[in-house]
Design brief:
Largest sheet: 7 strands, mixed
Distance between the termini: 37 Å
Strand content: 15-25%
CATH superfamily: Oxidoreductase, molybdopterin-binding domain
Structural class: alpha+beta
CATH topology: Sulfite Oxidase, Chain A, domain 2
CATH architecture: Alpha-Beta Complex
Number of domains: 1
Bound molecules: ligand MTE
Helix content: 10-25%
Order of helices and strands: HHHHHEEHEEHEEHEEEEHEEH
Number of helices: 10
Number of strands: 12
Radius of gyration: 18 Å
């Protein structure tokens, strides 16, 4: 609520970059505190995390639509046209349709969330995202009873995405969550980093962030969200079902078939940065463990 006033600015009021940025990517501890008020100690401890440099976050990326080298997305993702942008919300919702990104932003409350990001490749960062809770977007569309999963799809633009020429994955990139995971207050759609609009290489104009899961679940540049009663296919699971499960919760005790997940390399610490232990659910155990009560996390990796 604290930031609603910002949405009342018209484009004519926007005189400089600072105001423009602030209008869409609200930052501030107060907002973050409010948003997390309902969560446990672990999330509040986010204030203790030191975010990576803007440089690290925007130059070391995985966005295979633009190439598989870590520097490729920063080099090539400028070609992605992010305005106008619409997100189609489909399936088991009361108000299906194409939602303009600008209209979504007017309706949502953007706040800062400082989250750990743990890639399945065993490196990690801390990112100060700006975004809104996915639950708010889904509630806007009206989730129908009977919906059990949420499917997501990235833009498919062969003219703008040079990586699509290579069959690394079965394009477009798709992901999915169980509905309760999607509605969890930690799950956000990120639209900014450090108070600026999210750069293309990080998934402009909006990308999913699920901080307790391996980074590949956090699908970029989302164009379609489908509510369904069936577990949706996911890109990495299709590419390697033995290596990448549907859940993909960060779990130091369940190794990837080709490497251990017990520790991770923090990006930005220099060549000799010490590896650090990987935390259960990436440090968000207290908040999310209830989602998986009674589930065998080794079988459901
Ligand atoms: N989304 C799409 N569409 N394409 C991708 O290749 N890579 C995933 C995820 N989302 C990816 C994607 C992986 S493996 C990770 S670790 C994160 O994005 C990386 O996010 P970052 O580049 O913002 O750090």
């Amino acid at each position: 609520m604290a930031n609603r006033w910002i949405n009342q600015l018209t484009d004519r009021d926007v005189t400089d970059e600072a105001i423009y940025l602030n209008r869409r990517q609200i930052i501030g501890g107060a907002a973050a505190g409010l948003g997390l008020a309902g969560l446990g100690q672990g999330a509040m401890a986010q204030e203790g995390l030191t975010p990576n440099d803007y440089e690290d976050i925007t130059q070391y990326n995985n966005y295979y639509e633009f190439g598989t080298d870590k520097g490729d997305p920063a080099k090539y993702a400028d070609a992605l046209t992010t305005a106008p942008w619409t997100v189609s919300i489909e399936g088991m919702v009361d108000k299906p349709g194409d939602y303009a990104f600008e209209d979504i932003m007017k309706a949502m409350t953007v706040e800062e969330r400082i989250y750990r990001l743990r890639c399945v490749e065993a490196w990690s960062m801390v990112v100060p995202w700006n975004g809104f809770e996915l639950a708010d977007l889904l509630n806007m569309a009206g989730v129908q009873s009977g919906a059990k999963y949420v499917a997501f799809e990235t833009a498919y633009r062969p003219e703008e995405m040079p990586g699509l020429r290579f069959p690394v994955l079965d394009w477009p990139y798709v992901e999915g969550l169980r509905l309760d995971e999607a509605m969890h207050p930690l799950t956000i759609m990120a639209t900014g980093i450090y108070g600026r609009d999210i750069p293309n290489q990080n998934g402009a104009p909006l990308r999913l962030v699920v901080p307790w899961k391996y980074g590949f679940k956090s699908i970029k540049s989302v164009v379609r969200i489908t509510l369904t009663d069936k577990q949706p296919p996911t890109s990495w699971n299709k590419a390697g079902p033995r290596e990448y499960g549907f859940y993909s919760n960060v779990n130091p005790e369940v190794s990837h078939p080709r490497w251990s997940q017990a520790d991770e390399r923090p990006i930005g610490g220099g060549l000799f940065a010490r590896r650090q232990p990987t935390l259960m659910f990436n440090g968000y155990e207290e908040e999310v463990v209830g989602l998986y009560k009674g589930m065998d996390l080794t079988a459901n990796f």
